[in-house]
Protein: PilZ domain-containing protein
Amino acid sequence: MDKEIKDPEGILKVITALFGKLPAYIVNAEKEFPVKIIALKNKALIINTNLKFPTRERVLTVVHNGSKFLAHFNLAGGDGNGIEILTPVKIQISAASRQGTRVEISQIQTGMVVTNIINVNDVSKAIGFDDKKVDAILLAYRTKLTKAFPLSSIFFAGRMDNRLRLMHHYDKDIFIVDRKEKSTASPAFFPFDEYLRIFENSKIPDNYTSEICVPIKYKGYVHLGYVQVLSEKQLDIEVYKQIQTFANAVSRDIINTGVFQESRDVCQVMDLSMGGISFIHAPSRSFSRSVTLNGTILFDLNLEAGKKVTIRGIIKNIRNQETNFRVGCQFYNLTEKDTEILEDFLNVGKEEVPNPEESGTQENPSSDGSEGEPNEEKFDSSSNTIESPNSETVMEEGSEGDPFANHMDDNFAENLEDPK
Structure:
């Protein structure tokens, strides 16, 4: 290891600067898996993971400016259903290196292209302006919804409210069968105790006992709003499925209005792995608007005829190739569905390509794709601080400055049960 940080203040500075802003992974059985960072609270990191561990030790990793950060934690508490509270112990720093297999375009017989590129910041900006087409769609859907469920509403805005922000952080829908009976809660949905805190701070009358709240998302990634249904009687799973389908329909029709200015460029893919991608982009107007170093973008990856995934990624390098640009992009917490399609596509007899200088991709987070390209972000090993002038571009959508600003109750950590 090149450096080790054990000073508590230095550790917290690194965690605050990097975790929640960059793709984070957790080590389990010597492999690294994407992990959801929920909050930094009371000098502890709160995460969500479905993995099971033999001990109370946890190691989380991120890659920043050519360095790999391995943060060691101890499990301090949790809810037993994936939510864990981790207290930091130390951080080890070493040079990042590429690991894993990638596929060159010449190795596969397919017209792999990237289309519909859009910067995540532009998605949020687009719904912050009045648009008659969007307003008409929302009005029509609100009318349909209230006919079926009188105690319902659709929230849609360019800025998250507290309910949407928490659903974004936990990445779970709200499905409360009976607010007064915890045994009816399922770990597959938003944490029951955390919901009670939302309810206490809301203006919802006490006679409502059941709630379903499903986010409206842009292509499964960016939270735009939510569909909410309240009831004095218990709602069941069939109603939840109906609301889920309803929210997806709202999202689909709003996207189809064209309010989101996606790039019309068709970009040839140069190589691909489970960790990232590189593609060629012409120097068009949409390129200068959407493609910025360390920016977070969304795009459609057309793998082959009839097979497409939507990707969220962070741009790690941009290289001028005379007439075009080669863009290296690291994947950032893909949806489960898109991950499965990508794994299935890459999981057939691919041999490792040993030339790392042609792409900004990597199989796992041990390489950030920068590969010697100039970058303004710097890690100062003497002061344990990180300068990141462009860090706001790599936060998760809707974070609005503080990636850990989730408005959770101050006693959240104390109220969670100890791990079993």
About this structure: Confidence is low (pLDDT under 50) at residues 348-420. The first strand starts at residue 3 and ends at 5. The two ends are 33 Å apart (CA to CA). DSSP finds nine helices and 21 strands in the chain.
